[in-house]
Amino acid sequence: MLQKRIHYHSLMPNTRLDSRLLLRALIAFNIVLAVYNIITLQSNTSSKANPCLIVINTSKQTTNVHNSLQKGDFDDNVANSEMTPIDSKLYETKAITTEDKPINSSKINGEILNEKNKETIWWSTETRGSYTVLKNFVPSDESPDPMKSVTLTTQGTHSFLYHIENLCLRWDGHISVAVYSPGLDFPLVVNLIYYLRKCRNSCVREKTSWHMVYDSLFSPQSNTSFPSSYVEDMDFDCSQSYDELTNRFNTSFRSDHSLPYPINVVRNVARLNARTKYIFASDIELYPSVGIVSGFMQLLDRKMSGLVPVISGKNPHVYVIPIFEVKVGVTPPKNKTELKALMKTGNAIFFHKWVCDACQNFPDRNLWIDSIPTNHSLGIFRVTRRLRTRNTWEPLYIGTNDEPLYDERLSWDGKRDKMSQMYEMCLMSYDLAILDNAFLVHAPGIKHIDPKEEKKRLPFIKRNNMVYNTIMSKLRKKYGTKNQC
Ligand SMILES: *[C@@H]1O[C@H](CO)[C@@H](O)[C@H](O)[C@H]1NC(C)=O
Ligand SMILES: *[C@@H]1O[C@H](CO)[C@@H](O)[C@H](O)[C@H]1NC(C)=O
Ligand SMILES: *[C@@H]1O[C@H](CO)[C@@H](O)[C@H](O)[C@H]1NC(C)=O
Ligand SMILES: *[C@@H]1O[C@H](CO)[C@@H](O)[C@H](O)[C@H]1NC(C)=O
Ligand SMILES: *[C@@H]1O[C@H](CO)[C@@H](O)[C@H](O)[C@H]1NC(C)=O
Ligand SMILES: *[C@@H]1O[C@H](CO)[C@@H](O)[C@H](O)[C@H]1NC(C)=O
């Protein structure tokens, strides 16, 4: 049952440093695994512990690194039956089909392939409306176990990607990021990704997969080439900062062309390309408390054993994570004890308290602060609905790709981009289970309202409002009017 196969021979990174580090990491990892295996074998009483199998098969075709993987988990049919893409008729999306899983070998460490392998394209291209998507353009080095983890899915433009390091330092699962990168922003984004992978914490390259999204009218060049061909210098100077690298490119393609930010396109792309059943669609500036994924998987185990009766099996449901913000200069809290202390001193507040208090106002939220499970586990605080009385509540939640996608006609610039999704979930009778010991904190720093910026957004706001009304009447037709929503 205990198998270990390690084939290093075709790991051929461009830089020696890379290969040495990788080898060391693998060896260290393997030693830890060996110890873990011995322990789990000896204490056979804990039947939940799975034997570890690490397969690093780089024999020309395949490179798979799976942690705590049981053979059965690799079975595509298991995962696929759970993860049928929604709205596949609307878009020619091949999200989460057999073609995407298990990830094609050469995708891993794709950019460090040697010349011979350069004919192999590991990413796939998709058209969504007027946008082109390059899925898994820069994939993570490691693959998640589809059934035993939660992928944080998020999106951004070149100015926000530095947050990814903070996310992966706190999120104990994989991250799927879709980056809007039209025209000249594209090479900048690829360089930033390389910078983050090479120069920042190794969790970026291990756990983060990147997807590119651009207007089909503004593609980077007539033929998409390998990521490395956009990188100015593969031997990145890691002493430069993120901002220095950005400034060197001096591009403002998006604002020069007044392009709206297609936030719901990128949100959906990040979601649909996650390789786990459970996903957490969040924003790139929201830092999670630590240990959410492991706590959540334990919660699911308890639920399977019938130990979480508050969740009704009858209704569809998702798991809500409350959001906070902290004063400038305050380190975002990592656990609830820290958060509670900051709340008491006024250094932390509910997210958007001064801008849109209703947007994060959930039932009994003041009691939530004080209820810290003594056993440090993750459980359910309350089960509720997003009814009409809370129709501006925009919760973020752990769910699956069975939940409705975001409407891709709504842009970020036009505002109200998420509300129709919550309305739809009310019409579908979704239960919202609020987690008791998990939260998000907005990256410290206060956003200033720029009147010029607001004026620029006006035409987009008008457009979103029109689209919004169409969506609402379509939804009412589909599900019937439910006054309580
Ligand atoms: C490694 O992958 C190759 C190609 O997929 C396969 O033929 C070979 O049996 C694998 N080796 C091991 C040890 O799993
Ligand atoms: C995987 O990569 C190989 C080349 O390494 C290619 O021949 C094959 O078609 C790819 N498979 C998929 C499903 O993309
Ligand atoms: C783009 O790729 C196609 C097929 O590989 C090739 O025939 C064509 O010449 C390329 N165009 C340019 C501008 O490189
Ligand atoms: C950036 O580009 C603009 C023109 O697009 C130019 O005026 C400006 O001087 C450039 N800045 C730097 C630092 O090169
Ligand atoms: C929360 O974090 C503090 C400070 O980092 C630590 O002392 C404490 O043990 C943590 N509490 C829990 C429940 O993990
Ligand atoms: C932790 O304690 C709560 C009650 O405070 C209980 O509902 C939950 O099941 C416990 N979790 C574990 C893992 O024991």
What does this structure look like?
It comes from Medioppia subpectinata. This is N-acetyllactosaminide beta-1,3-N-acetylglucosaminyltransferase. Keywords: Membrane, Transmembrane, Transmembrane helix. The N and C termini lie far apart (52 Å). With 485 residues, this protein is an alpha/beta fold. It is globular and about 55 Å long. It is built from 13 helices and 16 strands. The protein folds into three domains: 74 residues, no CATH class; 177 residues, no CATH class; 193 residues, no CATH class. The longest helix has 29 residues. The structure holds 2-acetamido-2-deoxy-beta-D-glucopyranose (6 copies). One 2-acetamido-2-deoxy-beta-D-glucopyranose binds next to loops.
Structural class: alpha/beta
End-to-end Cα distance: 52 Å
Oligomer: single chain
Low-confidence stretches: 1-17, 37-116
Mean pLDDT: 78
Main β sheet profile: 10 strands, mixed
β-strand amount: 15-25%
Number of helices: 13
Spell the H/E element sequence: EHEHEEEHEHHEHHHEEHEEHEHEEHEEH
Ligand identities: 2-acetamido-2-deoxy-beta-D-glucopyranose
**Large-scale geometry:** globular
How much is the radius of gyration in Å? 23 Å
Helix percentage? 25-40%
Write the layout of secondary structure elements.
Blueprint: E1 4-6, H1 16-42, E2 54-56, H2 76-82, E3 124-128, E4 131-138, E5 150-156, H3 163-170, E6 175-180, H4 185-199, H5 203-207, E7 208-215, H6 242-249, H7 253-256, H8 263-272, E8 278-281, E9 286-288, H9 292-304, E10 317-320, E11 323-326, H10 336-344, E12 348-350, H11 365-370, E13 380-384, E14 397-399, H12 419-427, E15 431-435, E16 440-442, H13 451-479
Parallel strand pairs: 1-2, 5-6, 5-8, 6-7, 10-15, 11-16
Antiparallel strand pairs: 3-4, 4-7, 8-14, 9-16, 10-14, 11-12, 13-15
The structure holds 2-acetamido-2-deoxy-beta-D-glucopyranose (6 copies).
